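ping. complex inputs:
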Amino acid sequence: MLDLTPKEVKERVALRINPCKTCQPVGAMYCALGVEKCMPHSHGSQGCCSYHRTVLSRHFKEVAIATSSSFTEGASVFGGRSNINTSVKNIFDIYDPDIIAVHTTCLSETIGDDLTSYIMDMDIPEGKTVVHTNTPSYAGSHINGFFNMMIGFMSYLTKKTGTSNGKAAIFPGWVNPGDIRELKKIANMMEVPFVMFPDQSGVLDAPMTGKYETYPKGGTTIEEIKSLGDCEHLFSLGEITCIEPSEHLAKKHKVPYTLLPMPVGISLTDEFIMALQKFSKKEVPYELELERGQLVDLMLDSSQYTYQKKVAIFGDPDIVIGMTSLCLEMGMIPKYVITGTPKEDFTKKVKALLEQYSVEDCTVKANADLFELHQWIKNEPVDLLLGSSYGKQIAKAEDIPFIRVGFPVLDRYAGTLMPVVGYSGAIRYVEKITNALMDRQDRDSSDEDFELVM
Amino acid sequence: MDDRAKILDKYSSRVFKNRKEHVIQVENEDEQKIAANTRTIPGIMTARGCSYAGCKGVVVGPLKDVCVITHGPIGCSYYSWGTRRNKAKVEEGAKNFVPYAFSTDMQEPDIVFGGEKKLEKAIEEAMELFSPACIMICSTCPIGLIGDDVQAVAKRTEEKYGITAIGFSCEGYKGVSQSAGHHIANNGLMSKIIGIGDKKPTKKYSVNLLGEYNIGGDGWEQERILKRIGYEVVTIFTGDGSYETMKNAHFADLNLVMCHRSINYVAEMMKTKYGTDWIKVNFIGVGATCKSLRDMAKYFGDEELIKRTEEVIEDELASIYDDMEYYKTKLKGKTAGIFVGGSRAHHYQLLLSDLGVETIIAGYEFAHRDDYEGRKVIPNIKEDADNKNIETITVSKDPVFYRERYSAEKIEELKKEMEIDDYVGMIPDMKEGHVVVDDYNHFETEELIKVMKPDIFFSGIKDKYFIQKAGVPSRQMHSYDYSGPYAGFNGAVNFGRDVTMSLYTNAWEKVTPPWKTEPMLTGTLTGGGK
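pong. complex structure:
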């Protein structure tokens, strides 16, 4: 496996090998699927839409609906106005969504299609809505696409009536439906009335009923998005993913925001809960203290199997920051921490965490790829690899225990139904990590050292 | 109203006018017309992909010893990385690029100022790291628009490093589907690779296997059978295929075409340039596999070979008999729908029929009329602007390597018994009342299932989960749901097992909670006298 990867690391400036990021539009599509009765629409060649639907379906094991402007060479030369007009008409006719969320592609961006004016001139049926965002694939990563689509929805829809709705807005960032359910559970326990935006729960974890619904029950409603301007406070989870949409809402409607890391592990979940408490001014309920206590207890009990174990963590910036924090709490040493997304803030945040725990000699890099991560591991190995399914090649090549987390996980089931965030998400991951390391110890131990009780 | 009308009825007049030509209900298998290879209507949730997917994803991606660099922003390379199950095994010490993704990861300044320099630098880095014998460059949408000349870069690469380099202008907007990319890839392989090798086959009868991508190891099962009979397989286009073996393709005695759509151009051009005949084979299905093997033996007309073919068939049939009979008892009388591939919707009907399953709905994403109606319609296909944008290359007789096995008269004589250099298409194998859909979409699939109620539906990942949500078992026929091989004799058994498993999965019975079928309250009726 990956036999051509040499140990010797040479700097590359042009050739990206085994990327740790993908392009903006898939992020926009995922975001739009978190809005009720919304059809994501890809303005470009139909291949983009097909690829994005495919990767989302493979990750969630659910249908991911989206339409395409199906550009041909003619549209690429003369512009895509007629393609988007025809698309919008057909989508409302055939699929009857309440809202269409258009995102661009590198094709429509390169030819300079002006979606703002196209949409302004369009005949949109009464009661229906079309919004858009620009997602050039040649800038940023899928993370940018995700938050650009959030901003797209907000710039078209949010209003400030002047009367507060008394609610908190929560931006969950790029997480799975299982995480969103966990975040809602925590907010409810903290008695914080909220608007979650976006919200893929219900949509990408829809139940089997024997009846297919194009728009399953779920997603942030258009009314809820409109009401974001009237929210009293915004809690944004994911410092890299959510900063720009948070600033947008603050600037447009003066909604104050608290930017927090994705609540993974003890400390980062504590931060989220304390922020909610400041808002609700209510006691933290016993149920949450119970979960937290169980988590700390579990970590103390199992720490001898994780203490000083070296881990390589890769993936999207916010989940990687979160997992780094959890691993540090478990006494592990994050040896390599990378994201493919080109955001230098990522490096700063990770380094700050490492400093807190006085961990040195760790390589942290944004805009990195899995080829270089593999090369580093060849030079100085790790005990555990944490990241998306694409890590399984490295794990096999170097025989490293591997835990899947983040996006995309293409080769395992049920992960998207369960949380990574919150105390219960952390309990789940402490179990996964500890078991992986203990399984490895069992596998590698000689008969005389083989322990029945551990 | 017939089934077809019920589906089309829900469209607006403009969409109806277009789609009615693409959705047909078979009335006369021999003369049934269908519209195909035309633009998808914008906004329709098509299953189609793009030209890049056809070129890189389908045809050139599987070549294991080739460093395929995607020139463009990161997405296209990412999505075509390790996602197609084109299995490849390499000899000890040989290079295997299949687990890798290479991209120029173009950024905004590259789009503005041009990306050729970055591409050349990327090639330099690839040469330093891997020194491949062959580099292929696949262009994504922005490349053609900003005017990067990938062919010129390929030429400079060849001059600088003394390797083979091919630039493919397979931008996503070219043509109307993946099909454009197949054609573009075929042109490149034909003009730059086929015919440059000098390693001749050693066995008496040698073949190339065209349009076999080794999904789930299908190609290996076919190779196993062919080798058992005594054939030498020179190269496979392109599953587990390689630059090294493809160079020698011109020495093969016969081309076997599996996926007609994606590779027929190579078959045609090799016929013109090297005189190599081709036959349309189908190794999906027990009966189909036997027929293909017999056709091959008939083509060579060697008594010894015919005898050996019959021996192998007899032995293989005996070894799968019990399993096939068992699965038939589980599947007989079921009906199926199938939307996949460039020949597969046709191939799998024959395998399903071996198992007693009738295919009542079939369709393709990116086929042309000849895939549905047979090559006889090719002279009548009108070219439109989208097709004209795809280059057609002309080849001529190779002065050294052209050889005809048989005279024109002998070929005509053989044609009475088998198809040579021809394909009759899918529709002739279907029955009256069956529905055929070209460029199928989400809406039509949903409606067809409601109206025609197949017991199982074979399609791709984009459809699988919604079909299952509607209560119909669905299997992915692009990836075989990570099972396989389904080709050949052993593959037929695997397929029978998997279809049975999908239909008889215990959890299907649990879909409806018991409280939905039981009365909500129990109690006794009291009171009341007469």
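Chain B touches chain A through 92 residues (CB under 8 Å).
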